[in-house]
């Protein structure tokens, strides 16, 4: 990851993890606005968490999850990539524990800023900040922006002109 010590270092790459939830859509909108202001590349990452209960997923289910997540990420990249002239949006799908996988991806791609949602598809335990968002805020060596649920009431959808 970029060694951003809070100085005025430019933001060249932004990571916006997504799970397809409404909260993730607000995250993507915020990441795109930052990218427009900074001239940064947005990375959209979806993590298939197959580690929580490995016995729950067989080979076919994992393949179906991978395919669904890939379609989700590809759809986001297609819809948002052309929204603003010169804005680059890249997509990826990974498997593993969400926090560790997000941090590994950020390290591999030199991410300068992480934009996450306060909540996602988690349950009641995620009510305040969200377990993944909480772990990322505590563990990430780069700045993390947490987008509140319901934020973005004035946001444009990716397809908006």
Write the layout of secondary structure elements.
Elements: E1 13-17, H1 22-38, E2 41-48, H2 59-81, E3 89-95, H3 98-108, E4 113-117, H4 131-139, E5 144-147
Parallel strand pairs: 1-2, 1-4, 2-3, 4-5
Domain UspA: 11-148
Pfam family, one: Usp
InterPro entries: Rossmann-like_a/b/a_fold, Universal_stress_UspA, UspA
In short:
The protein is built from four helices and five strands.
For the secondary structure, the number of strands is 5
Taking pLDDT < 50 over at least 5 consecutive residues as the criterion, the unreliable ranges are 121-128, 151-157
The whole-angstrom Rg is 15 Å
Number of domains in the coordinates?
1
Strand order of the largest sheet: 3-2-1-4-5
CATH architecture: 3-Layer(aba) Sandwich
Distance between the termini: 33 Å
Element-level helix/strand string: EHEHEHEHE
CATH topology: Rossmann fold
Overall average residue pLDDT:
77
Report the total helices.
4
Give the proportion of residues in helices: 25-40%
Biggest sheet details: 5 strands, parallel
* CATH class identity: Alpha Beta
Shape assignment: globular
Which structural class do you get from the secondary structure elements?
Answer: alpha/beta
Strand percentage, roughly?
15-25%
Family: Belongs to the universal stress protein A family.
Domain UspA: 11-148
Pfam families: Usp (PF00582)
Organism: Natronococcus amylolyticus DSM 10524
């Amino acid at each position: 990851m970029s060694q951003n010590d809070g100085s005025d270092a430019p933001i060249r790459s932004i990571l916006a993890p997504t799970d397809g939830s409404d909260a993730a859509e607000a995250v993507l909108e915020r990441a795109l606005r930052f990218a427009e202001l900074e001239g940064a590349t947005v990375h959209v990452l979806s993590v298939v968490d197959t580690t929580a209960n490995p016995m729950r997923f067989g080979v076919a289910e994992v393949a179906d999850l991978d395919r669904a997540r890939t379609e989700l990420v590809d759809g986001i990249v297609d819809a948002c990539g052309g929204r603003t002239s010169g804005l680059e949006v890249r997509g990826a799908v990974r498997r593993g524990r969400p926090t560790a996988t997000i941090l590994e991806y950020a390290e591999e791609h030199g991410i300068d800023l992480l934009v996450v949602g306060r909540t996602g598809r988690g349950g009641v335990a995620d009510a305040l900040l969200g377990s993944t968002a909480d772990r990322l805020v505590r563990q990430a060596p780069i700045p993390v922006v947490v987008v509140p649920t319901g934020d973005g009431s004035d946001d444009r959808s990716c397809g908006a002109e």
